[in-house]
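Contributing new records

If you add data, match the layout below exactly. Sequence lines come first and carry their own label; structure lines follow with theirs. Keep one chain per record. Anything else will be rejected by the validation script.
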Amino acid sequence: MMIAGEVSGDIHGAGLIRCLRSKNDNIDFFGIGGLKMLRENFRPYYMLDTLQTHGLVEVLRHIPRLYQTLWRMRDALEEERPEALILIDYPGFNLKLAAYAKLKGIPVIFFNSPQIWAWRKGRLKTIRRVVDKMIVLFPFEEKIYQQAGVEVSWVGHPLLDQIPSDYDSSTFRKQYGLKNDLPLLAIAPGSRPSEMRRHLPTLLEALPNIQKKIGDIQCILPVAESLDFKEVKMVVESSTVPVTLIPEQFIESIQACDAAIVASGTASLQTGLALKPFAIVYQVAPLTFRIARYLAHTKYIGLVNVLAEKEIVPELLQNNFTASIVAETAVRLLQDKAYRDKMSDELKSIRGKLGESGAYDKAARCIENVLVNNRTPTYRK
């Protein structure tokens, strides 16, 4: 059984399925996932949008649905008796399911650690109790789990395999009618519908101010597969500055642009690894933000800043996420060469902290070792 609750988890899930099936194509994967996992012949009980929520306070109205989904997946553990439960991030849901699997003697493997280094360190006790193997993407996470007595392996970050260093954007620009002699700004409001609805209007409102200060610009918006393309198009049509919508192709969009404004999450790390000047934005309900700030153990929200242990990329959060501040930041990202070069140089140092390529292959070997060590059936009714 495999559970992914986010768009990034769908990507990770598909990568893990491919690598595990490369050595044994008879493995049956089922559970909760997205379209990329489905393309790898994943058998869904639910699609990942069943689990998607945005914020701490905002999740309250979704609790009945989330618990119904959790109870159904508990039943699935009973009915299908999988050899292992592979959980991908999404700790609020996944750790509850892990506890039930542990009671039933089903090995629990967690890929992509919850951000316990950022907040809710108390989850370490739960993880030690219910997770048999933790597979982490960042080196500092390995040390945290080793000190806590959790079986852990650091495999590096899969994004290192996804960002080519010699990408030529000329074909991409030509395909979408983008000119080489005009600045190209990418805006990425987030992969969740709730993120898009909260962030996109402010991003669009900033565009005329940017154009007023630097002249004609081009703007692209890579639309995540998890979003309704028609809904995004309807919102974008209100913009006085034309925005070219790009179906998926996030990495290609980022590599083609001159600068980007990106919602916090995996997309911000992808942008950093592409060495593009960018800013991180995010906004949630005020109470959610206050709670998160109170619980947080880190000063920064963006992974590139967390890894650097300083702000190398500006973070425009909550009250600082306004059209005027976005415009001012974007103008500097597009026009200030010294600022752009310094940011790119500092982003290069982040790459070296993420290990070597082949993360999914290494993770697949970790999973295979867990399965070998648990070959004797331990399932308890």
